[in-house]
Amino acid sequence: MKIMVGLGNPGKQYEHTRHNVGFDVIEELSRRFNIPLDQSKLKGLYGIGFYKGEKVLLLKPLTYMNLSGESIRAVMDYYDIGLEDLLVIYDDLDLPVGKIRLRQKGSAGGHNGIKSTVAHLGTQAFNRIRIGIDRPQNGMSVPDYVLGKFHKEEQLQIQDVVQKSADACEACLERPFIQVMNDFNQ
């Protein structure tokens, strides 16, 4: 079984904020794959279904960003899912809005959700899709920025990048990750 995890924060006030773009991708995959997110346990909201014969689990950890690894580890242990079948989708301050970058491993780069994931998995070697949200301007604090909504002029870019990220996730179910990485990182 493959597991695709979008990082974000639970609650209405965080919907469609920069920090929740991972959740947005999982919701798009839920729609595309017709896999309802209807199970709430193991500190997450998730659904299990099939896409082109491949069993897929879509997960939104409900632990808040800084503790994301707790839910990921719990779900992976419960369903006996290996690291090679994990894909984590999250926001990245170091990429411009509208850009995505696929990687097989790497540091947390200051991202608390990834720090938690690395701590709970005991490795930095897992597949990921980083979605650019850019850095705050005009002295705005990083927490205020990431918990804020996208500006009106960024809305179309974000809609496009959510679709592109979902396309990459879909491709990961059909081809080796390294091939998908090469295709989408151009």
UniProtKB/TrEMBL annotation:
Query: Can you list the GO cellular component terms from the UniProt entry?
Result: cytoplasm
Q: Where is this site: Discriminates between blocked and unblocked aminoacyl-tRNA?
A: N9
Q: Which molecular-function annotations from GO does this UniProt entry contain?
A: peptidyl-tRNA hydrolase activity; tRNA binding
The family database entries (Pfam families) matched by this protein are listed as:
Pept_tRNA_hydro (PF01195)
Q: What is its main location?
A: cytoplasm
Keyword annotations of the record: Cytoplasm, Hydrolase, RNA-binding, tRNA-binding
The record's listing under InterPro entries reads: Pept_tRNA_hydro, Pept_tRNA_hydro_CS, Pept_tRNA_hydro_sf
Q: Does the keyword tRNA-binding apply?
A: yes
Q: What general EC class does the enzyme of this chain belong to?
A: hydrolase
> Which positions are annotated as binding tRNA?
Y14, Y64, N66, N112
Subunit details: Monomer.
Cited NCBIfam families? pth
* The protein's name: Peptidyl-tRNA hydrolase
